Amino acid sequence: MFSKKPLAQTQNLADRAADQVNALAQRGVDGVLDASHLIRDRALRASDSTVGYIKDEPVKAMLIAAVAGAALMAIVSLLGRSRYRG
Predict the structure, then answer these.
(1) Global pTM?
(2) Cβ of 64: how many Cβ atoms within 10 Å?
(3) How far apart, in Å, are the Cα atoms of 41 and each of 48, 74, 86?
(4) For residue 64, which of 54, 52, 73 has the smallest C-alpha distance?
(5) Structural domains in the chain (count)
(6) How many Å apart are CA 81 and CA 74, to the nearest integer?
(7) Containing domain of residue 70, as a range?
(8) What is the pLDDT of residue 9?
């Protein structure tokens, strides 16, 4: 009734498709790992340069931090007020 040849061809196609899906998934995982390593390296470099700047210019660093903190508090205060008026 049914020939075994089409079944074997179908199995062969399914196996190749599964192999391609596995290869694609592995490439995706490898890409995510590479990107995470790159982000980690950049974060470490940024941290090192920030520490270096603070050591070289402590007064400027403190002033920048104070201004940034004040600006953040002003934004939070404005957002808090607008919610109650709403």
Answers:
(1) 0.53
(2) 13
(3) 11, 33, 44
(4) 54
(5) 1
(6) 11
(7) 7-85
(8) 85
